[in-house]
Every structure is written in C-alpha cells, then in structure tokens.
Amino acid sequence: MTSSQQSEPPVTVSHTDDPAPDASPVAPTVFRVPALALSGVALFLFGVTFPVVGAPALFGWMLALPLLLAYWILRVRTTVTPEHFVSRRAFGSTTVEWSSVTGLLFPRLGWGKATLADGSAVRMPGVTVDKLPQLSVASGGAVPDPSPVETPAEDTDSETGA
C-alpha cells in the first residue's frame, strides 16, 4: 500500500545558513559559578549530617550552611550584553553600562572587577582571565580581546632558494 502524501523538506537545514536572518537582539551571555560546585555542597551536607544526627539540639543549625552555600552558587553570576553587564550577588545586583567602565582588573585568584569612571569597582562573578575572549564577544567589542592574533608563517624555503 502506497501513500500519496510526500514529505516536505525542512525550510532550513542544520548545515546551511538561515535564508532570512531576523533582526532579533543577541541573547545575553551568562558567566556563573560552575554547576560542579554543587557536588562539593552535597559532600559538605553529607559531612554535616553526622554532628546533626549525634546532637540535633546543638548542631541542627549547621544544616543551614550547605543550603546557603547552594543558594549562593546558584544565585551569583554576571550577565553581559553589548550595552551593559549585570553583576548579581547573593542579595542584590548592579547594572553597569559599558560606557562607564574604565578598565578591568583580574586578581591572581578570583573573579574580575570592572573599574568605573567614578573610581569604584564592581565585581564580575564568574568572569576570569580565561573567559576574556567570550567576554569580548558578548560585550560587542566594548572589552577588547587580548588574545594574540595568529599570523601565517612565511615560507622560509623560498628565501633560501631551496
């Protein structure tokens, strides 16, 4: 038995460009604490249960520590768009326009800080030195990419006559 219905090819194919790209805004890029940190919280919770089970009245409050730590890991982040970035902390957030940023500081350990024109600094949770190329793309060029540009090697054989 044959079917008279023919399948239609898809409008777009995964290996071809979109025939009519829309002018939708670019999705913001989010930098956050890696989710793997939650496994450390689970281990911490496991370790805390022993004193809590042994003396609940004395150590029961310790169960709040892993919960607060998990909340912090899930909450803090930096959301970057070409116009601004939002630094989200555990209990608040700060929105900073790229035009007010005068520089970026990256300590040896930890997250970067954006220095502002008024002399203050705003921490950028999740943004480290190794994420500068991603930050440059997400900021629309407001943050230059410091990665060295590879230049093609010249053919040394042609110069020596070999």
Any overview of this molecule?
The protein has helices at residues 37-54, 56-59, 64-75, 132-138, 156-160, and strands at residues 29-32, 77-80, 84-89, 92-97, 101-105, 112-116, 121-124. The protein is an alpha+beta fold. The protein has a domain at 29-141: PH-domain like (Roll), CATH 2.30.29. The strands form two sheets. A four-stranded antiparallel beta sheet has the order 1-2-3-4. It has a three-stranded antiparallel beta sheet with strand order 5-6-7, with no helix packed on it. α1 (37-54) runs antiparallel to α3 (64-75). The longest helix is centred in the first third of the chain and has 18 residues, at 37-54.
Short description:
The chain has helices at residues 37-54, 56-59, 64-75, 132-138, 156-160, and strands at residues 29-32, 77-80, 84-89, 92-97, 101-105, 112-116, 121-124. With 162 residues, it is an alpha+beta fold.
CATH A-level architecture of the domain at 29-141: Roll
Q: What's the count of strands?
A: 7
**CATH fold-level topology of the domain at 29-141:** PH-domain like
CATH class categorisation of the domain at 29-141: Mainly Beta
Note poorly predicted spans. none
Classify the secondary structure makeup into a structural class: alpha+beta
The share of residues in extended strands comes to 15-25%
General form: elongated
Give the helix level as a range of percent.
25-40%
Q: Kindly, what is the distance between the CA atoms of the first and last residues, rounded to a whole number of angstroms?
A: 71 Å
The total count of helices amounts to 5
Q: State mean pLDDT (0 to 100 scale).
A: 84
Assign the CATH superfamily of the domain at 29-141: Pleckstrin-homology domain (PH domain)/Phosphotyrosine-binding domain (PTB)
Largest sheet: 4 strands, antiparallel
Strand order of the largest sheet: 1-2-3-4
**CA gyration radius, whole angstroms:** 25 Å
SSE order, one letter for each helix or strand: EHHHEEEEEEHH
